[in-house]
Design goal:
It contains five helices and no strands. With 137 residues, the chain is mainly alpha-helical. The protein has one domain (8-40, 47-133).
Length: 137
Amino acid sequence: MQFAGTNYAAVLLAAIAAWLFGALWYMALSNPWLKAARIDPASMKRSVAPFLVSFVAELVMATVLAGAVAHLGPGQVTIRNGIVSGLILWAGFVATTLAVNHRYQGFGWTLTLIDAGHWLGVALIMGAVIGWMGVPG
């Protein structure tokens, strides 16, 4: 079954690439992120669950982004349109949601910038991969 001409191989590759980007992003920014999120590394519970949840969420995000790009019409699934669509969806939904949630939760802007930067990278990578791979032939 196709959803708006979705290339499911592109969705899977986009989710994998985005997940790997997230791993690198948070490894590089682990100390500032832990401080901004007010998490004591000694009290953290080690679990695979957050990694699985994030990958499933990224599969959903990639599917929705692929549908949004494909919705532009025939011949419009391009790297440029994928990146632009990812940027627009990030700015309109992800960055705004993080900013609001973090303000109500009492977190500072450092956490918002780290998390929003991660999701911006995710959206751009997904858009690029989806656009690069195009729609199924």
